[in-house]
Amino acid sequence: MDKVAQIDLLDKNVVPKTHFSFMVRDNTYFVLVLLMIFSYFYNLPVISYSIKGDNEFRLYDIVGVFIMFVFVANFKFFYYIITKVKVFKWFFYFALWCTLTILVTLFFSIFKDNINAFIQSVLYLFHLWVFFVTALMFFIISFNRNKLNIFVLFILVLSVISSILIIMQNFGFVPFLWNATYKAGYAGFLSGTLGPNKIITGMYSLMMAAFAIGLLNNKKSGINKLFLIFVVFINLYVLLLSGSRTSYVGLIIFFAFFAFFKTSRFVFFATLAGFVFAFLIVTNDTLYSKIDDVISNRVVSKVENEEDLQNANVGKLYEDLGAGRDNISIGYIKFILNNPEIIPFGLGFNNRLTRAIAAHNMYLTTIKELGIVGFVLYFGWLIQYLLIPFKKYGGNELAIKGLALSMLVTLYFGEHLYIYRPLFATLGMFLLVMTALMSYLHDNEVDTKNTN
Predict the structure, then answer these.
(1) What pLDDT shows up at residue 261?
(2) Which terminus of the chain has a lower count of CB atoms within 10 Å, N or C?
(3) Do 158 and 37 form a contact (C-beta atoms < 8 A)?
(4) Is the separation of the CB atoms in 217 and 395 below 8 Å?
(5) pLDDT tens for residues 21-57?
(6) How far apart are CA 182 and CA 49, in angstroms?
């Protein structure tokens, strides 16, 4: 992985601090990352304000200010890490390109007399950088294996709490937690504290299930196996309950890769999963009926011809299940072809002043907003995950490459790994999970003794 395991932690000549491991040893940075992890699961607003209508600050907006201060104050140090890890290098250049192209968005905002659109774009850009720098800090601090284990356990425990909260909501024990605007806009979808959009719940559950499956197949993860199995199944249940058809596709892609990559373990897992869900169905009809209602309403009822479902007619199923996204995609393709001047560099980061409707297709969104340059940098970043040479930790390889493939496919149907406000911290969570899986490759470890 671009010599990530060969970083010399004791080389004092390449960083601006007296000791390379300052971030590993200082618990202040550790706490900052823990707060960011918590904020990804707690997306409810912590401060409300008004520029135009109702606006909200979330916990990661506030903690992110400190994260970015650390990044700027120690840029030489962070840049050294970025240059050593290709995944970070590609995302760093993508973020830089977004920062550059936001100037075009500013031009459109001034020209169309809508400066609020630019201010909103700046906030999205801030999120992009904060999510990235948090992943960097996570990666660096995880050179201490004890802290890595705490990070991983913290993510998994929050995932379980979040899943239980969502299940309790769906059984009527907990009310809708968002305000009336969200309730009207998202039909009161029950998703705990993650965010009221179905795809947030679905993608979080997919990432957490894949993460736990990877750790299950990693003999040195140090996480209790029974707990990991519980994490897998509760997240699979919530994923099915989410009603996110894009997430269903992602799950299918991940399981297909699982079956190909580790066939014998997949057979064992599939058998175990079958027994668990069969037990749940037999012992509690309500659990089954909840899932059955969601799938019937969100999938089966949308398919006009049952034979298309039986024969896996992808084109027709996309037309039936895509909620009009096939027509939106065609419209975007026509828009781009009719304006070929935007193809090289795009119309500006988050510039929705020229075409307000979302593409629901990350491939088209990157070309329209960031041009071919942004397209190459963004998908080049995702492809880098597939190129990481794991010589050990096969479970981590299964999870990281399976998730990357899932995203490469599902991003054709959505923009869940971007920074639009309705999708909240999904990108941040993805970066954290993938970074956690990479962090097990650290060969050099640093203890937590506070020596100078």
Answers:
(1) 86
(2) C
(3) yes
(4) yes
(5) 778 888 999 999 999 999 999 998 888 766 555 678 8
(6) 16
Whether residue 177 is predicted with pLDDT greater than 70 in this model: the reply is yes
Other C-beta atoms closer than 10 Å to the C-beta of 57 total 14
Cβ-contact 163, 238 below 8 angstroms = yes
pLDDT tens-place string over residues 391-424? 777 789 999 999 999 999 999 988 999 987 556 8
141-152 in b/e form (b: 16+ CB < 10 A) is bbbbbebbeebb
Q: How far is CA 289 from the centre of its chain?
A: 29
CA distance 132 to 408: 19
Q: How many CB atoms lie within 10 A of CB 233?
A: 18
Long-range pairs of 127-130 with CB within 8 A, sequence gap ≥ 24: 127/60, 127/61, 127/64, 127/419, 127/425, 127/427, 127/428, 128/95, 128/98, 128/419, 128/427, 129/68, 129/71, 129/95, 129/99, 130/36, 130/60, 130/64, 130/67, 130/68, 130/428
Banded model confidence at residue 20, pLDDT cuts 50, 70, 90: low
Tokens of 142: 């995880």
Residue type, 252: I
CB 405 within 8 A of CB 257: yes
Q: Are 364 and 375 within 8 A, CB to CB?
A: no
Q: How many CA atoms does the CB half-sphere of 222 hold within 13 Å?
A: 10
What angle do helix axes 145-170 and 198-216 make, rounded to 10 degrees? 140
0.85 exceeded by pTM: yes
